[in-house]
């Protein structure tokens, strides 16, 4: 396999994984509609950072422990499920306690904005605690390593390809959300966005736990 063949083949698989709805899409969409474009981009940057960590780990064989150790995989899956449920509960609590109903449409009080570093951290942790993405890296990246190219460098290069596609996807989500947000803006809509996103994230966490119990 040549370097070009490896990059093109991996790009095709990564593109399919990228567009599958998941926690990353839900978080970016929620931040766009309730916090603004800067927070959405910052959260996406956190997810991309986590993807680079997974890519390097898969290339060096560190994350291969998850493939051979059932305990390690279960611990990561439980931690990821708990984190998603915690995020979901937090969004529901925010939607029930927010007091900005008297603001004009499109206005967002400064005190309700999260620090950008918190948005980045949420994106990072949501990716690092996503065992399915980790398993994707462990299963797929080693198949596209090219002889003569250092594994870590190749893993990071493949991560660049996947993250470039994810960046395009996130940009499309943000643009679409902002376009439709012109008609679906205001305090009430932001509350419902928090509730819907919180429900989606919590559902992902519950499903992960149920899958663990059936395993």
How would you describe the overall organization of this protein?
This protein is mainly alpha-helical. It is 78% helix and 0% strand. It contains 9 helices and no strands. Helix 1 packs parallel to helix 8 (151-181) and helix 2 (23-34) runs antiparallel to helix 3. Residues 100-111 have low confidence and may be disordered.
Question: Structural class of the secondary elements?
Answer: mainly alpha
Give the low-confidence spans. 100-111
Distance between the termini: 36 Å
Number of helical runs? 9
Give helix and strand order, one letter per element, not per position: HHHHHHHHH
Question: What is the residue-averaged pLDDT?
Answer: 75
Question: Main sheet?
Answer: none
| Rg over C-alpha atoms, rounded to the nearest angstrom | 18 Å
Beta-strand percentage range: under 5%
Question: How many distinct beta strands?
Answer: 0
Short description:
It is built from 9 helices and no strands.
Features:
215 residues, mainly alpha
How would you summarize the topology of this molecule?
Blueprint (H helix, E strand, L loop, with lengths): L2 H17 L3 H12 L2 H24 L4 H4 L1 H28 L18 H13 L2 H10 L10 H31 L5 H28 L1
